[in-house]
Every structure is written in C-alpha cells, then in structure tokens.
Amino acid sequence: MHNHWRGPLEIATVCTTEEDQKGRNLDWDRASISHQGYNGNLDETQQSWLLGPSEKKKKKYVDLGCIMCSRSTFKWAILSILIAFVVNGLPIIIVKAIPRHKTPPPSPDNYTLALHKALLFFNAQKSGKLPKNNGVPWRWKSGLEDGSDLTDVKGGLVGGYYDAGDNTKFHFPMSFAMTMLSWSVIEYEHKYRAIGEYDHIRDLIKWGNDYLLLTFNSSATRINKIYSQVGGSQNRSRTPDDHYCWQRPEDMDYPRKVQTTTSGPELGAEMAAALAAASIVFRDKPTYSNKLSKGAETLWAFARDGGRRTRYSQGNPFIEPFYNSSGYYDEYMWGAAWLFYATGNNTYFSSATNPGFPKNSRAFSMNPNLSILSWDNKLPAAMLLLTRIRLFLNPGYPYEDMLKSYHNVTGLTMCSYLRRYNVFNFTQGGMIELNHGRAQNLQYVANAAFLASVFADYLNATGVPGWYCGPTFYKIKVLKDFATSQIKYILGDNPLKMSYVVGYGSNYPIHVHHRGASFPRDKIKYSCTGGWRWRDAKTPNPNTVTGAMVGGPDRFDKFKDSRSNYSYTEPTVAGNAGLVAALVSLTSSGGIRVEKNTIFSAVPPMYPKSPSPPPPWRP
Q1: What predicted TM-score, i.e. pTM, was given to this entire model?
Q2: Cα–Cα distance for residue pair 380/385, rounded to 1 Å
Q3: Mean pLDDT over residues 155-180, rounded?
C-alpha cells in the first residue's frame, strides 16, 4: 500500500521480535551519531528521538477459537455470568427443587357423590350380553332368549333394562327413563363432563335406545305394531313367571312372553320422545343420530294414526295392573316437542301448540294431579319444554298465545309445590306428598325437584329473576330451595336419618326388594321356587345394588326395610332417571347453568310472523 508521496506505508505490529529490534539498530547512521559526540550512552531525549516511546508491557490474550479477547475481559465476563447465575438462576433451581403443594380441586358435593351411585343402578339393571366394564360384579349376561321366537327380529329382543326388582322389561316406563336421562344430558352436558360421567351416561342412553330400536321396524316409515313388553306376570298367578319366581336374571328358565300392541298412541309417542331426545345427545355421531330421529318419526306416525288410538295397556292383564296408561294427549305434547327439537320440522311445533292437545289432555284444568310428573303423566314436563322455546327464542305470532298459556301453567305448577299454598301435604319431616300419602312417593318427589331446578336455571339463563304466584313474586332461589330440600330428604336429611339411595351415606336400606341383589355369589342355580329362601331371608342382601332409590317412606316418615314389602324397598329405572336428572341439576360441579343452545341445534331461526291482514272493509 502506498501514500500520495509514493513511499511505502507500512503499519508496524504492536509486538516485535528480537531480530527485528537488532535490525533497526544496525540501520542507524553511524556518522550522525559520532558527529554528536556519541560516547555510547544516549540521554533520555535522544533515545526518544531515535527509538520512539518506550515499549509498553505486552497484553495477554485468551484464544477462544473464533474470538480473541484479553484475559482481564475474559475474567470479568466469567465473573458476571457467575453473579447472574447466583442472583437469577439459583433461586429458580431452589424453587424447582422444593416439592410443589398444588391446591387440590374442590371436593365433589353430595349431589355429585350421589349421582355417581345413581347412574350405577342402571348398570345393575342391564339385560343381555354385558360388557366387561359393566361395573357390577354380581351381574352377567341374561335374557339371551328374549324374543327368540320372533321371526321379524333378528337375534330377538336382547338388551334393554329390567324394570325394577323383578326381571320384566316394560317398554313404556323404560322409554320415559331414557327420555329423562337424555334431557338431563342436553341441559347439563358440561356437568357430566366435569364429574367424569359423560361417557357413562351416554352408554346408558345408547343401551336403552338400541334396544327400543329392536321393538319395531325402525327401517320403515310406517309400522303396524310395536313389541311393548318382554316377560311379566298376571296377578295371583301360580305359574312360573317374573313375579311368581324369585330367581336371578341369569338363572331364568321359565317362558318369557312378548307382548305386542297394534294400537298404542302413548307408547308410540313416548318411544318417539326417547329416540328424538337421544338423537340430540348423539348429534356428534350423525349416522346414529339420524337413525334415532328417523325411528322417532316412524313411531310418531304410528302414535298419531287415527285408527290406532286405543291405549296400549287396555285389557292386557300383563300390563294394565302394573303400568296402565291414563291417556295419551300428554305424550302427544311431549313427543311433538322433542321431535321439533330433534328435527327442526315446524310441523311438530305446530302440533305441540295445537289447541286440541292441551284441551284433550286437560292441561289448563289446574287439576293438582296433572302437575305431577311421572312415567304416566308428561304434562308438566311437556309444558316446561315448550316454555323453554318462549323464554329463549320468543317466536311470537302465531305461537305466542299458546306458549304464554304453557308458561303460565308451568309457573302455577311451581307454585303448587310450595308448602305455603297447601296444594299438597307435606310430612312432618318435610317430604312433599305428591302421591297423596300412598306408597312409592319418592319417584314423584325426585321428578318435581328436577322440574323446579331446571325451570330456575331457565329463568336465570334468560335474566328473569323469578316468577309470580298470583300477585306474589318469588325469586329463583325459592325454586332451588324447594328442589334441594326434597333431594336432601332423599339423601338422609329426614327424621330417620336414612338415605333412600342404596350405598350413599352410612345408613341406607339393606333388604332391597331386588332379585339379583338378594342371592349370594355361590355359583348355584336356584329354581323358580328354590329362590324363595333368599326372598324371605331376614339377613341383608349379599350384594349392594348401589345407587338404587327405593320406594321410600310413608306419610308419617316411617320406613320398613323389608325385602318382602316392595312398596318401601323396590327401586325402578323410571324413578332413578328422575333422581339422576335432579342430582345433576343441583350439583355445583361444572357450574350452575344450563346449556343454552344445545337443544336448539337443529331448530332454524324463528322470527315472529306478521299477523294475517284483516278482511277488506265493506260498506
């Protein structure tokens, strides 16, 4: 490199070798030095002229490969890293090393604990080939020959649920139980998920509805018969049947007759409701959901056939004494409401709000008996379901007048449950006597608790603070208080401190009227009458039928824990379905609310229509 004087421009390195230094000394001009009288020693000024500044001490470097830095800089860098580690890193390591004490999730409330058990009762009632994970070790496959002589049902009528402590499969109350379970899931899916029971209850609903699909030709659009019952007995019968014999379901060896109906509006409509409600529960499985909804529409057509309006139980000695139907227009309202929710077909909504349905069902008669929800009377539930449409969708004209009437009667039904109005008596212990002092009252109590609780949740979800009983306004809390008081009574808050749900608490019935639970697991097959020894034994049941809600106490709050007294100690699937619905509505697990829109998943937007114009004026 050259400068503008054309001389060489070289940059000397900081550090020079010994040879380089010697070379410089040899190149000095000896003459000029001698001319100054050089005597071999230079003063400091002279040395500075010739040699430049004195040589500084060499710095020491650290070679880091691609980077070179001075040793002092390297030391400071290392020291800084160590300080940063002590200040920041060490506390983190210490915190990580200390065992964490996570805040445990809140304990499940009593309603959740009881709900787990109440669902398990349905596992104990299953008929057919049971899965390995059924969860009831003293139950296994049974009823495999049910309907085996039917030529139009491949594989027979295997599956479903035994109704109670006997081994009969009554399809009318079974359908109601499935509808109630599905309704509870539709409203409270988030709660079932929160407590880990969502898959379980869906399995229970599918088990029942798969069986119901076998009881008619579900692939057809029109049918002429429904199989209405498997097994059963006649009163005072002395021939082997489901009541005369006392046997495990697994040991049944007597003929089990299948009942067939060619006319059954209430059976068809209730089965339609069950399948329609289940189709909403299984909306995430479109093929199965569609199968259920199509089957529901087929059953509805059968129920509405004008030539098939005779009650399904009429004159049948195997049905009428046990599950007799008092009418069918309540099932019409109930079934039409569920079909509308399931399909979105406005025809069903028009039917549900047709003035003929409430007229023929006496929905507006204010008869206290008609405000009691049961397997036979669906009126209060049907009107509440239709009130839901008014509260959430407000479709207006032309439905408003009828929906308003349903809403008003629903409010009055809730008023009738309040003790201060003396519509129903209450026991001294606080149980409402919806069965007018007769036996097996708890099934009606649980249903009423559910209706009050879910109505309160509807009001809360729509921002309505309460409802009126005449001129008196009551807050939502009054409804919840009624529901909780009744369910607490069932769970043990009663004069006897007796839990009427088997396996819940420390004091519950141990002589439950239940065939399967009463036999020891001794691998001995007992005959029809050989099992009477276990029926009449004074010892507790060898097996616990967990979650079974028994018939309950009498009007004096007294209870007889006797296997032979079924009115006190026999559970039913219809009764337990109402209990499950009430419990899930009251539990705080998952939050206090209903699923607002799940039930409307198939319903198109609803807008008020303009009323028809008045006729033209004529002079």
Answers
A1: 0.83
A2: 9
A3: 98
